[in-house]
Amino acid sequence: MTSRTRILLRRFHLWLGLGVGGLLALLGLTGSALVFYVEIDEAIHPAVQQTSITVAPDWSSPVWDRALATGRAHRRDPHGTWSLEATGKSGAIPARYYPSARHGHHAEREMVWFSPDGSEIVRAEPWGGYLMSWLYELHMHLLAGAFGSQIVGWSGFAMLVLLISGVVAWWPRGSWRKALAFKRHAVPIRRLRDLHKHAGLWSMALLSVLAGTGALLALPSIKVRLLSTAVTAPDKVPAPLSSAASGRQISVAQALAAAHRVVPDGRLAFIDVPGAGPEPFRMRVRVPGDPHRRFPSSFVFVDQYSGRLLAVHDIRRGNASTKAGAWIRTLHDGSVGGMPLRILAMILGLIPTVMFVTGFLHWRRRIAARAQSHPTGSPS
């Protein structure tokens, strides 16, 4: 690489970092907090920390129908839908209430926590109306819905460009030992440069994983396009409808029994209970081999009136792209490696702030130094 090319690359790296560095720092800080989203939220709201002497509710527990009845008494909307979460532990039961049939990241919803026996509501708050959900919306969408998701997604790719351009611009032409040295007793501008350099170099590999997976989560259409180009088109999750649009809905217990028969080795994660209409019950299930514990990628659909099995989306029978796609969220939130990797993911989320602050201060000190060396005009 010629000296002129290196200078141009450094300028590109500088101005891209100054342009998007503040946003990347914000996303990193909010992401660090969200690694322990559930634990922090429970610590802030003791009401949901209720303990129970019973075992955690599973496929055959009667608590689901009791909680659903309690929830529907709380929200008397025949078209509203409920999503009950099976956390795998005893205690309060988290749920989501959607006043319409539209689900997804941008759908209006209320978060509800039932007592361990499902007989009462111990907490209910609108999504985005309490601290951790507000941080989630800020991290995922910048509080700007689908448009914000686009900004977040492309900023993830900008982070990858920053990391790569920084390493290429730094790449030593001489002694590696000198290039990797950190001079603690050097002048402040050199220490800032060294801190910025080392923060980027030693975190690059893992930070690239966080940035890349975050971009793909925010831009699902790009994710599908990339997987389709690199491997093959991912299997589509079925979207079946019940055999009728009205009638008497079966119990949650009946729907669970029908689903459990086809995935007897699966762990229940979520129960999506439809309102009046043709939508079916949808059970989200973690089967052996699925990397994400809380948000697995297998689904079972059951007719809400007849109890008939409608469709199964088992990740074990999916193609390579389907299985690869299941790892994206797991890699992004650090849950793939348990507590040690979650702590590491939290620490990595702080690195963009370190890099932005050190890069900005280094730039400001360079500007000040140039101004002092050219007191009568701008530097050439």
From TrEMBL:
The keyword DNA repair does not apply. The chain crosses the membrane at residues 12-38, 151-171, 199-219, 343-363. Keywords: Membrane, Transmembrane, Transmembrane helix. Coiled coil: none annotated. The keyword Ubl conjugation does not apply. It comes from the Bacteria. This is PepSY-associated TM helix domain-containing protein. It comes from Sphingosinicella rhizophila. The lineage of its organism: Bacteria, Pseudomonadati, Pseudomonadota, Alphaproteobacteria, Sphingomonadales.
